Write the structure tokens for this entry.
Amino acid sequence: MDIQEWEVKKLRLADLIPWPRNPRKIGREAYERLKERIIARGCKFKCPFCLLSGLKGYREIPTEQVVEKIRQIPRGSMAAIFAPERTSHSGWNEIKAAIRDQSIRDYGSDARLETLEKVDSDSVIMGLEGVSYRLRKSIRKNFTDDFIIEKMKDFCTSGKRLRFGAKISIYYIADLPGEINEDYKEFLDFIRRIESENWSRNLCLVPVLNPLSPKPFTQLRDAVIHPFRNYPAIWENILRGGDNNRRWGVRIKEYKVWGCFERTVDTIVHRGGSEGYQIIGKLNDKLLRQVPADWERQVLVSKEILKVCDKIGLTQEKLLYEYD
Ligand code: SF4
């Protein structure tokens, strides 16, 4: 197939992408007012832990169509203009201009650190993944603390954020291959630096830690998984001031971190094949919906599940790629 033919096919497929209604449960009135507009599917990047780029090739809705659809949204409405990495849409500047012209309150907020300056809204979500430079480098996100802090400063001190404040959510991945305690010490230093900056008075920081979920077909599919590392406690300690047990001088919002139960179940789903499916199918619904809150109980339940797996040949070595 020559390239021109492929391009035509790509555009036709893109034209067929629907403009879905927002499925989130946000209350009836807000639901009727909120519009979600998907402007691209798939992603141009290939992060080593992310399945998306392997599942769906990148396709974007042509800019003129996006702009036309945005013009149909009533002026002043709330809307989420969404793509997995929307700032890399080839017509992003025109799309942004259309959003501004319609006075739309845009709730789409994903971006990459490199393109933070392309975001107009007061809140942004980005993935840095590694808590230290060494770990970021290992997954091809070679961002130094200096570079990250410079970008965050520019974001917090530009546009209406200077007056109304900024919110930056940063996704991190725990249990990346080769992780050691020093990586978290470096992360503590990173927050200390943010705390010491004047511009951070303007900031609400939301660091979110997601332990590694080994997705098939990704480069990290065979990573060793340590479900019994107590990441919820490690993260809580850091976000509540570190070892000195004080509060940070920068506003920090906390989110729950997966414990060993969620990680065990997740690994069985990804690595257990049809036997794993049988095990998950037998787990009590109530257990799946109400994960035990305390760590000790989670460890007990998770180890019981691993014992059952072991009996049908899904050994810890097969699931976690190491023995406990
Ligand atoms: S993590 Fe984000 S930027 Fe990376 S491939 Fe997935 S969607 Fe794209």
The longest helix spans residues 295-311. The chain has three domains: 1-108, 109-258, 260-324.
